[in-house]
Amino acid sequence: MIEFFAARVYYLVSFLLLGVGTYMMIGSPNLVKKVIGMNVFQTGIFLFFIVIAFVEGASPPLLTAPAPYVSPLPHVLILTAIVVGVSLTAVALGLIVRIYDEYGTLNEEAIQKVVGDD
C-alpha cells in the first residue's frame, strides 16, 4: 500500500494543491488571499499536467530517437498557462488596488455591505 502512494506522490501533491487553492478561494473573505489561492490552484493544475505527461524511459521526439516518445504538447501548454496565470494575477492585483482605493477595505463582505448587494 505504501508503494502505491509512493509511486503516485506527485498526484497526491497536485490534488493537495488543488484542494488548498480551492479552500483559499472559497473560504477567505480577503481578496488578496483569494488571488493567492487562485495561484496555488493553478500550480496544482500545472503539476498535474506535467505529471501525466511523464513517460518512463521515453525520449524526446526527434527524427532519430527510438520509440516511445514524450509528447512536447503538455509542456508547451503549461508554459502558455504560466504566462496567462501571471497576466491574470497582475490584472487581479491591479483591480484589488483600485477596489481598496475606492472602498478602503479588502474584505469581500464589507464591500458587499457598502455596495448594497446581499
Automatic annotation (TrEMBL):
The UniProt record lists the keyword Transmembrane: yes
Membrane topology: Multi-pass membrane protein
Gene Ontology cellular-component annotations: membrane
Compartment annotation: Membrane
InterPro entries: CPA3_antiporter_subunitC, NUOK/Mnh_C1-like
Transmembrane segments: 6-26, 75-97
Taxonomy, superkingdom: Archaea
Keywords linked to the UniProt accession: Membrane, Transmembrane, Transmembrane helix
Primary subcellular site in the record, as a coarse category: membrane
One of the Pfam families matching this protein, by short name: Oxidored_q2
Signal peptide interval: none
Protein name per Swiss-Prot or TrEMBL: Cation:proton antiporter subunit C
Species this chain originates from: Salinirubrum litoreum
Source taxonomy: Archaea, Methanobacteriati, Methanobacteriota, Stenosarchaea group, Halobacteria
